[in-house]
Amino acid sequence: MENENIENIEQNQDGSNNEFVENNFVSVKIFDQDISLKITDVSKEYLENISGYIDETVKLIKEANPYFNDKMVLTLAALNIADMLHRKEFENDEQRQYFSDCTNNLHEKTMTIIQMIDNRKNKNSKL
Fold it and tell me: What is the residue range of 92's domain?
């Protein structure tokens, strides 16, 4: 899946740090790899935060599974992050449906009350 907001430009071999920002680029470190990212419509801090999250996830998996090779560690990190994303999307869908149901229920009750008021007005006007 391609993200239009973040473009991987080049992998730094010079050991540059996370402070590098020039011409809308930021250098981040993930799993001991320096990576330059182009900043498009997100902030430098956002890229640093998500890169830090990925780095922390990878390191935790490596610590828990020291005999796994890097490819396996990175694959497990990707699966864990994707799982979390999909769970949050599912939760958001459930919440959206719940609020939609509540809104519909409230609308129906409001319409019933309006109808009752109209009926009462009509009944009183005939008297």
Answer: 69-127
